[in-house]
Amino acid sequence: MKEFDLVVIGGGPAGYVSAIRAAQLKMSVAIIDKRATLGGTCLNVGCIPSKALLDSSEHYENALTNFAAHGISAKDIKMDVAQMVARKDKVVAEVTAGVDFLMKKNKIERFVGLGTITGSNEVRVGEEVLKVKKIIIATGSEPIELPTVPIDGAIVITSDHALSLKKVPKHLIVIGAGVIGLELGSVWRRLGAKVSIVEFLPRLFPSSDRQMSNLAQRLYEQQGFEFMFEHKVEKAETKGKAAIVTVKTPTGETKTLEGDAVLCAVGRKPYLEGLGLDKVGVKLTERGRVAVDFHSYQTSVPSIYAIGDCIDGAMLAHKAMEEGVACVEVMAGQAGHVNYGAIPGIVYTHPEVAWVGMGEEELKEKGIEYKVGRSFFKPNGRAKAMLEGDGQLKLLSDKKTDRLLGAFIVGARASELIAELTLAMEFGASAEDIARTCHAHPTLSEIVKDAAEQNGGWAIHQ
Q1: Helix segments in 209-359, DSSP class H
Q2: Which fold has domain 2-143+269-338?
Q3: pLDDT digits over 62-112, tens only?
Q4: What is the CATH architecture assignment of 342-456?
Q5: Which residues are catalytic?
Q6: Are 447 and 389 in contact (CB under 8 A)?
Q7: Distance between CA 419 and CA 10 in Å, rounded?
Q8: N or C end of the chain, less CB within 10 A?
Q9: Predicted confidence band of residue 240 (pLDDT cuts 50, 70, 90)
């Protein structure tokens, strides 16, 4: 029987980061994952492969639509879908191998298999029993499947299957207008598919600022996306090589959509199968996630902790990583902490969408008086040079103190620009602090400075 200070069950962003931080803090650590490759959903069938496909498809669309404006003549442009998927697989192989290297570097022992908690200080993986002082549950999540939308992996698919389609669908019907549906819908739309998105809610990005999500929707629609909001999917079925989706409209009418692929992207749920939580007394929330104390991340069993997608909060890899570090630091007697008010959300479509903090609707609900600063991509010199004029940036600050309360971006490189604003919120910066910080010229980051100046009433370039 092997003994460890800590065993981490799950090798995704939450799990491998917590394992590395624990090793840095001189704990003996083991990590268990059912996959042969570490990285969890994110690296294997989520964040990384989807971004690889998004980049490939964006290059293809640029070649078709923007190269001529740059003076580049390209004829007979074709997309080799098999090569695009092969490149995606190569990227995944490289990043997962990188995580495996980090395990070896930090002397973390790996176990491949399903980890089951058989006692408050005991974990079984295969035939091996590990004696441990502490356990972290970091098992991540899996796609939610609807009972009326049976997945066959060929015509009716999940995000896992959508990453490896062998050909471009003629008509892709996406159930769910969340991040996954929009990103994978973008990949196949750029390559020629008609994309229809059916969404039960009345708008995009309900946790974001409404005005900015409306802007994103308009830009998506200009690209050819078809949205059906407040539509409920009744069922999906296959007839030969076709898929028929039956939906109920906001007025209660029933209509059918026909396509050759249906992507079910209605969200994800914690993956807790086979852990044995009920047998050791680990309590779950009403939503079926592991209940924890959000200071220590301890469960109802003091020696067992949980982080990432299997606990409450947004299912985001970067949020999971922060929890992994904080959990282990608190475990080691340090002051680990996660500021949940400064966790950015990002959608890697084109244009990208990113936000952090509170939107106007939330501020109004809380009775907080605020100021608005706004800037646009169109007049920015760098954006013009890049042919990236679509989009805008909005900053919301406290009317009395000027402290930054929220930031929302629709536009090129929003995923990178949001980092400055997240840092500003983490340090309690004011909009004026941002405005008086020198931003290099010409850069897209000047759009951030412009919005901060406008928030203070002295915009130079507007």
Answers
A1: 210-223, 277-280, 317-331
A2: FAD/NAD(P)-binding domain (3.50.50)
A3: 999 999 999 999 889 999 999 999 999 999 999 999 999 999 999 999 999
A4: 2-Layer Sandwich (3.30)
A5: 441
A6: no
A7: 27
A8: N
A9: very high
Average pLDDT for the chain: 97
Other Cβ atoms within 10 Å of 98 Cβ, number: 12
Pull the structure tokens for residue 194: 């008609």
pLDDT at residue 259, as a whole number? 97
Q: Which one, of 61, 83, 58, 85, lies nearest residue 165 by Cα?
A: 85
DSSP 267: -
Superfamily of 156-266 according to CATH? FAD/NAD(P)-binding domain (3.50.50.60)
- Residue 365's identity, in one-letter code, is E
Residue type, 157: I
pLDDT score, position 94: 98
User: In a 10 Å sphere around its CB, with 0-12 CB exposed, 13-18 middle and 19+ buried, how is residue 189 labelled?
Assistant: buried
Q: Model confidence over 186-203: pLDDT tens digits?
A: 999 999 999 999 999 999
Determine contact, residues 318/415, Cβ cutoff 8 Å: no
Give the number of other Cβ atoms within 10 Å of residue 457's Cβ: 8
> Residue 327 above 90 pLDDT?
yes
Contact status, residue 290 vs residue 306, Cβ threshold 8 Å: yes
Q: Could you tell me the pLDDT band of residue 207, with boundaries at 50, 70 and 90?
A: confident
pLDDT of amino acid 144: 95
The CA distance from 334 to 337, in Å, is: 9
Q: What pairs with residue 404 in β-bridges?
A: 397
CA-based nearest residue to 97, from 38, 141, 146: 38
Same fold? 2-143+269-338, 156-266: yes
Long-range contacts of range 162-167, CB-CB < 8 Å, 24 or more positions apart?
Answer: 162/187, 162/188, 162/263, 163/45, 163/49, 163/50, 163/53, 163/85, 163/88, 164/85, 165/81, 165/85, 165/261, 166/81, 166/82, 166/85, 167/81
The full set of domain ranges for the chain reads: 2-143+269-338, 156-266, 342-456
For residues 103 and 311, what is the distance between their CA atoms, to the nearest angstrom? 24
